[in-house]
Design a protein that fits this description.
CATH superfamily of the largest domain in chain B: Rod shape-determining protein MreC, domain 1
CATH architecture of the largest domain in chain B: Beta Barrel
Order of helices and strands of chain B: HHHEEEEEEEEEEEE
Number of strands of chain A: 0
Distance between the termini of chain B: 68 Å
Mean pLDDT of chain A: 85
Helix content of chain B: 40-55%
Structural class of chain A: mainly alpha
Number of helices of chain A: 9
Oligomer: heterodimer
Order of helices and strands of chain A: HHHHHHHHH
CATH class of the largest domain in chain B: Mainly Beta
Largest sheet of chain A: none
Low-confidence stretches of chain B: none
Radius of gyration of chain A: 16 Å
Number of domains of chain B: 2
Chain lengths: 167, 283
């Protein structure tokens, strides 16, 4: 029972892991400014392939956690983004579900780009002072570069868990 | 009749579940929009709540960052062992230089004490410091901060200066029971009174949530050269005089750009120093 509960929450746990990764004090120059937004990529993937295992309340709290750890002045921004992405991809999943790996990565890259643009717009309207968009651009590029590896890992994980009827 | 009552009760019981499954997206999305606007209207209250939540996550972050710190220490040790001969020579040369400086420093300290006594200069309080580990970095385009181990229980207070071996990192912004939040020098809200070391030109150093900082309120005809050292001026009573902050890297669009000496990603441990200054920071 506990084992099943654990495996049914694997999508949420992977997103949680990727949210926490961003806050880790890796001693890599420039990491904190440009840490890739991999939690969004994971939300995109699970929203297409296992949306029922990614409940809205779970995504809301994970988004809030992401906000607390990286975006303290815009509490609620990532929570809203995660929810929107989940809803949109679940509604349109029939277009994505049978796509090849490359097309899937490109599509998720496009969805991530739209999310980044929404983020920049919201921050632009809410910010009290001017800010540079260079960190956003770099963050998006790093997210795009690491996304194929992440998608591959998640595909392998999902396939592994599905074969053993743990999902 | 009994069956009808049971049916009715069953429908009433599953009503919240039905609402939740149909309207959960709307409910949570509305909550996130409300939070965004509440954060905009009451930023300081939301900031306090955010710090409380951050502090409650601190044990988890501390546990999770342990392997990261261990990894970096291991990598540093491996690098040290691989370069042991070269490091040894560098350390021996540095030791010789430091021994000479030690004698000079002792002479200067004695002379300084005598001059202070002659001029009736007030005694400088001995500073108290704590070494802390950075357990999380909360940095990005909107905020530049870090979470460190150490809080009220360890004697830390708001306004304590956070330094590393190379210079100033920031100051304590919020203090919890066992963890504290550091506002970095590169944050938009960080305003540090500084002085150019060579020319004694005073200015205010501020960040823009990127890796660079900028000099504002320097005199218009100030001649500041690229490469000049910037140190804290001691004005405002928050930072004492003389802490290295950064170097002038350029002059663009009428503003001097400063590269800070210390980058938060490059340090694992910091010193939190209480200089006994009661500046303009609210308790």
């Amino acid at each position: 029972m506990v084992k099943q509960l654990f495996f049914r929450n694997v999508p949420l746990l992977t997103v949680l892991f990727l949210v926490l990764i961003i806050a880790m004090p890796f001693q890599i120059t420039g990491y904190s400014m440009t840490a890739p937004f991999l939690s969004l990529a994971a939300v995109c993937y699970w929203s297409i392939f296992s949306p029922t295992l990614l409940p809205f309340y779970g995504l809301f709290f994970l988004g809030l956690l992401q906000d607390i750890l990286s975006n303290p002045n815009t509490l609620g921004l990532n929570a809203g983004l995660f929810l929107l992405v989940r809803l949109f991809l679940e509604l349109e999943k029939r277009f994505f579900i049978n796509q090849g790996f490359v097309v899937l990565c490109l599509t998720l890259g496009a969805v991530t780009l739209i999310c980044f643009l929404i983020k920049i717009l919201i921050v632009f309207f809410l910010a009290d002072a001017s800010f540079s968009i260079n960190p956003f651009i770099l963050q998006y590029i790093f997210t795009l570069l690491l996304m194929p590896s992440l998608i591959w890992v998640l595909m392998y994980l999902r396939s592994f868990l599905t074969k053993r009827n743990l999902f | 009749m009994m069956r009808k009552s049971i049916d009715f009760l069953h429908r009433v019981a599953i009503l919240p579940r039905t609402y939740f499954s149909r309207f959960s997206f709307l409910t949570f999305f509305s909550m996130s929009i409300v939070l965004l606007f509440v954060g905009r209207i009451y930023p300081s209250s939301v900031s306090d709540v955010k710090f409380l939540l951050y502090e409650s996550l601190s044990p988890v972050l501390s546990f999770a960052s342990g392997p990261v710190s261990t990894f970096h220490t291991a990598m540093d040790n491996i690098s040290l062992h691989l370069n042991v001969v070269k490091e040894n020579k560098l350390l021996m040369d540095e030791n010789l230089i430091l021994k000479r400086w030690k004698e000079t420093a002792a002479t200067l300290q004695h002379e300084n004490k005598k001059l202070r006594s002659l001029l009736h200069f007030p005694q400088v309080k001995n500073k108290v410091f704590t070494t802390s580990r950075i357990i999380a970095i909360s940095s990005g385009p909107f905020y530049q901060g870090a979470l460190i181990e150490g809080g009220i229980d360890q004697g830390l207070v708001k306004g304590n200066v956070v330094v590393s071996g190379q210079g100033l990192l920031g100051r304590i912004d919020k203090v919890g029971k066992n963890f504290s939040s550091v506002l970095l020098v590169t944050d938009l809200n960080s305003k540090i009174p500084v002085v150019i070391k060579s020319s004694k030109i005073k200015a205010i150093l501020t960040g823009d949530n990127s890796e660079k900082t900028y000099l504002f309120y320097a005199p218009q005809n100030a001649q500041i050269k690229v490469g000049e050292e910037i140190i804290t001026s001691g004005h405002g009573g928050v930072f004492p005089y003389g802490i290295p902050v950064g170097k002038v890297s350029g002059f663009y669009d009428g503003i001097y750009h400063i590269i800070p000496h210390v980058r938060v990603e490059d340090v694992g441990f910091v010193r939190v120093v209480d200089y006994g200054l009661n500046g303009v920071i609210d308790p």
